[in-house]
Peptidase S8/S53 domain-containing protein (Nyssa sinensis), 153 residues
Amino acid sequence: MALTTETRAVDGARELAERGSVGAMEKGVIVSSSAGNAGPFQGSLHNGIPWVLTVVAGSIDRSFAVTLTLGNGLIITAYTMFPARALVVNFPLIYSKTLSACNSTKLLFEAPYAVLICDDIGSFEDQIDYISISNTAAAIFVPEEPLISEFKC
């Protein structure tokens, strides 16, 4: 049985789910739950239920040097968290103040199929979400301060 104990659950719903999981455990059913991505603190669980098998995932604690070669021959060295080669060939590279926040589903779906340059707006995780569901070939994120190793997956 998979238990979901959303941290913003309606009053009483979380407690009710936890009590139900005790009953399942007493009947020999394995109850599992995700550790959650929201804390309450980094490296902590949103549930600490001792009879539940809590499943976790890791995060990337390193970055990889990459080279970006533009059509005019300019080579830019940067860092990525993606450890494999990515080949994005013959797509326009677009920087537009209208699109550069990379945080609007509507604008990103109307954007041309291209590589977008995204400005740092303080919400990298949200930008990744918007880009991943958009009509975009790829994106380059330009942080104010390059602290990519602090990104939590």
Q: What stands out?
A: The domain at 64-148 is CATH 3.50.30.30 (Glucose Oxidase; domain 1).
